[in-house]
Amino acid sequence: xxxxxxxxxxxxxxxxxxxxxxxxxxxxxxxxxxxxxxxxxxxxxxxxxxxxxxxxxxxxxxxxxxxxxxxxxxxxxxxxxxxxxxxxxxxxxxxxxxxxxxxxxxxxxxxxxxxxxxxxxxxxxxxxxxxxxxxxxxxxxxxxxxxxxxxxxxxxxxxxxxxxxxxxxxxxxxxxxxxxxxxxxxxxxxxxxxxxxxxxxxxxxxxxxxxxxxxxxxxxxxxxxxxxxxxxxxxxxxxxxxxxxxxxxxxxxxxxxxxxxxxxxxxxxxxxxxxxxxxxxxxxxxxxxxxxxxxxxxxxxxxxxxxxxxxxxxxxxxxxxxxxxxxxxxxxxxxxxxxxxxxxxxxxxxxxxxxxxxxxxx
Length: 362
Ligand code: IPM
Ligand code: MN
Known about the structure:
Strand content: 15-25%
Bound molecules: 3-isopropylmalic acid, manganese (II) ion
Number of helices: 11
């Protein structure tokens, strides 16, 4: 038997545990077929634990998570907990403390999936967004004074260091070289597009743009470079998504444009992402929320969680298995399920997991 990977699983809130279970099923099937082992350890972080113990994430948690090869997350978000508590206390804390400085979010339309972009097919919607995941407004300095008065002042600043920008851009160039359209036999060039706002945010994005061209010219001359303003990017993501190959952008812009991207690929039932520390422990998650109203009904779509699992395999180095999972998902969207929406798939959550696992075994 081949490698053994130790995976920390955080099923989380709402429908998180249900979708993660289907992910496990599929990943184990891939392990059996491609000869590796996954040793999974569950952690009960989430809203229920918080309501029970008053603790969002125990002190030792991050150090424990550091011992694993990867983290597989279901969903965080509980109707009984004030918004922000779990998101900041679990998701963002893990991202920042494990220095997962890349958020990789492919935008790929699979066969049979309905997109709101009339006339667009899987040919047209096939790119990846690399979102800087450790800095910007998310971690910038700020504060409030005279709160509650008519003189209230608030500041929340976009802070980027050269170090943060450069490490993110280097990852993006490497990714474009390996997984760009030329590398995948789908185009003439591997193209990295920097998404910014150099016409207004003339300090922060000037830094991004300078480093982009400086290291691009020197170390990645084979990767074609383009620059787009973020607002225009939103238009093209709707009008001409086929222009894009690999995009790289700041934390806040990346957060916003990847929700738009997810919608164009069929929505939260399919969109997955990875929070990656290329030198450390990465965490993979379906982008959608915990969808509490569907909890326990066995009707939620597990494909986004399964796709997150495929990304995890790829990052662990099991590329063949990752591709097999993605191909199996395409079979299921292309030939089996009727819709990605909860309750409208024509199959239960568990049946969709069985279908994907079945295509991997054959
Ligand atoms: C995401 C989410 C998070 C973010 C929230 C829940 C903190 O929107 O993963 O995109 O803003 O990064
Ligand atoms: Mn978001």
